[in-house]
Amino acid sequence: MSFPQPFFKWRPHPWHGLEVGPEPPQLVHAFIEISPFDLVKYEVDKVTGYLRVDRPQRTSSQPPALYGFIPRTYCGKRVAALMPSSRRGDHDPLDICVLSERPITKSEVILNARVIGGLPMLDNEEADDKIIAVLASDNIWADVQDIDEVPSALVNRIRHYFSTYKIMPGEEDSPTVSIDNIYGRYRAEKVIEAAIADYNEEFGE
Q1: Residue range 37-44: average pLDDT?
Q2: For site-directed labelling of 27, which of 15, 111, 180, 184 has its Cα 20 to 30 A away?
Q3: What phi and psi values does residue 36 have, to the nearest 5 degrees?
Q4: What confidence tier does 55 reach under pLDDT thresholds 50, 70, 90?
Q5: Please, what is the average pLDDT of the chain?
Q6: Residue 28 C-alpha from the chain's centroid
């Protein structure tokens, strides 16, 4: 019996060991860290690749979409250059939110995501873009090509979540987080290309 190719004897690191996707920057892989049902924020541990508990969600707001990152991307100088108000990238993989009609309740899964837009988020002067995508095989969302085809109420939920998810109840709006106008697929693909180039420079192809 032969092993399938590629075959990994050990679990690959989700950031460095998985491929960017089938057809980047249009169709990418997303490694999901948080589902819309999670009351705790999980984040991949950079050393081990396992999920680490970051913090409980601070408000009653829950993620409005699947949330994770695109493997083999890095927010460095090229990503920062696409957001003139930033001083640098956040030195993390590029974040992605994925819309799905059917509830996906598990995290630490991989899926194919079609890119449709993004949020230009600035966090403590660092570029921290949130790419928005749809599940590629989804019965409802699969034909969506750009962000303007998504109901504005849903886009506003995503924007509101990231505008407020670091705020402690009783505090004023966080002065460290700001989100400019949402952008469409073309700009999102440019951000992904920049993040891939930043990754290759930082870690090698």
Answers
A1: 89
A2: 180
A3: -65, -5
A4: confident
A5: 91
A6: 11
